[in-house]
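Listing S7. Sequence submitted for prediction.
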Amino acid sequence: MRTRVLAVALAGALTPLALTVPAAHAATAAAPYDFNGDGRADLAIGAPGATVGGQSKAGAVSVVYGSSTGLKTATRTLITQNTAGVPGTAEAGDAFGSAVASADLNKDGYADLLIGAPGEDVDGDTNDGTVVVVWGAGSGLSGARTVIDYWHEDVDRYGQALAAGDLDGDGDTDVAIGATGSVGLSFVNGPVTRSGGWQGGSGAGFPDSYSPSYGITALSAGRVSPAWSTSLVMHGRQPRTGAAVTHLVTDPSIGNFTDWMQDLPAGTVSAIGDIDKDGYADIAVGNPAETSADPAGAKGGKVTVVYGGPGGKDTSRAPLVLGQDAAGVPGAAETGDAFGSSVFLGDVNGDGFKDLAIGASGEDSGTGSVTLLYGTASGLTTKGAVSYTQNTAGVAGAAEKGDRFGARVLLADHSGDHRAELTVAGPGENAGDGAVWSLRGAAGGPTTAGSLSFGPSATGVSTAGAPLYGSVLNN
């Protein structure tokens, strides 16, 4: 591993401006994705293939705000690089919206939104990539700032993966950014404010473990153990075989954090949450690949749940391996199902235990499906597991080849009733237009009664080309 640290003094005469915040919101930082401070999670939807101002694949992000009845497309914000206050200009291939993350970066009581555009050309460097932060406020998101790229000459596709959290334990929220090149993972120290200087950062490459050609392809952040403020799960590809590789970085504040990296089951996506309510967050890793494509894959794909403990992974508990042939899991493992193409942990029934949503975007010739398993005091159980498709009663539309229903899943409380809604994206719907479905959380689990479905046009995204609306949801 190669690590570089950029001290504050090297960041360019930094004298951070004093941050003034509204008195009503000064004390408590907002939860991620609560952009207007109303206590409900809002939804960020990436459409990296969207045409903007006639520019193909420039990319867009739609934000739909939560309400007492769940998501409401009538209250929304469309963000592109042509939006007033957003740096840059929408250009072909920018892929704005390829990754998102959220945190209250400036601690003003409103969550902010980080957006990656890994296809952005910067100063003549093709696909150098960029990241912007869009600021939350009582009226929603507006105004933005480009996040500094300290390693501009050493990275490409900066912003292809994003995460945020207090990574160095100093009380400020930092930003982790994935890229390709010799510095695959960059850290930008917090606080990140609307104006003023940057606080330094660091960057790392992992040439023995991660191929620089693929870089860090996905990131998840969460508090696995109370011993560390925030830990990271990072994904990429091995340098020689191209097989998936995944690690848990228990304490990113350590400069040489190779010593703090723990091997995890290989996969392409992950989610962090406390399934059994024991005070330690658990990690679900999805690997949708067949063994012919990835030695760590499985027929039809799989998800592995690693339970957390004081030292990161709880080595006293065997990981739980789930596929569609596992007892109690609906369906059957079939080649190409891509079970594990997306995973998310959240509490859908309000019992305090995190439940697991799993997308299988390749199910039934790419129509797609989503499986929900419940958390208990003894861990995740397949008892009562349920599966959803577009053919499920109450779910809008019809299952069609290539819809990729379940390519992204999310469990988040959009209504403020302490039960997470199940939100599902199918970016292949309507020949690549894409669509999103949201099922209300309830004591008995997600209900299709009154479920919501909408596509790009409902939130102002053009259907020219193939916007792939829903390729990205809240991280």
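Caption to Listing S7: primary sequence and predicted structure tokens for the chain studied. The radius of gyration is 20 Å. Residues 363-366 form the longest helix (4 residues).
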